[in-house]
Task: inverse folding
């Protein structure tokens, strides 16, 4: 449990297998899909993102937004959820010096992550950023700072029927932010989760 702004936040940490003397590359904090539509930290896409980060040597922290699982509070349409995410980031990166940070989000989680990037600013900018099924249809997803573009992976399913690909392209186009499209992919990447994991791992392995 992590102390959040309205009480305890339920979280899980997945650890990489390291050789003697090795340290994790940093900590990846991963945000889940919409709490009012069965979104939790145990979502298959969220777990897939965690596996990709762990595979590449990162600690991966998944957590439940307020009102989900054992996390206290009630759903707050993204405002309070941003505060929850920032509290988990503070906890996960605590130390001197702070652990390098990566952020990832799926669907509603991507929306919240985009605003966390804006709130953190350039001094605390994540080393890596992964947005999957970005919820650009119902939410005002924040633009990604240009100097983070090379470290950002945006993945979307061609046949996403929850967030149409066109809406994500409309969000990305003014930023000239590339979008990786999975042919035939649905919102939840049914049957294509290994491909999603490999895309994320390949992006992380590039280093930047």
Result:
């Amino acid at each position: 449990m992590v102390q959040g702004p309205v009480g305890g936040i339920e979280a899980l940490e997945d650890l990489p297998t390291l050789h003697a003397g090795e340290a994790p590359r940093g900590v990846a904090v991963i945000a889940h899909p919409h709490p009012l539509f069965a979104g939790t930290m145990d979502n298959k896409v969220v777990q897939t993102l965690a596996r990709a980060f762990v595979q590449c040597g990162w600690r991966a922290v998944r957590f439940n937004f307020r009102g989900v699982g054992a996390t206290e509070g009630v759903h707050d349409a993204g405002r309070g959820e941003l505060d929850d995410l920032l509290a988990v980031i503070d906890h996960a990166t605590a130390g001197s010096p702070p652990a390098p940070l990566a952020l990832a989000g799926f669907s509603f989680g991507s929306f919240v992550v985009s605003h966390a990037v804006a709130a953190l600013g350039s001094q605390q900018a994540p080393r890596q950023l992964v947005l999957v099924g970005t919820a650009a249809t119902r939410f005002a997803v924040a633009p990604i700072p240009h100097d983070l573009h090379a470290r950002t992976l945006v993945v979307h399913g061609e046949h996403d029927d929850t967030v149409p690909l066109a809406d994500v392209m409309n969000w990305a186009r003014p930023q000239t932010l590339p979008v990786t499209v999975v042919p035939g992919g649905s919102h939840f990447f049914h049957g294509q989760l290994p491909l999603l994991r490999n895309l994320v791992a390949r992006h992380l392995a590039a280093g930047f």
Summary: The mean pLDDT is 97.
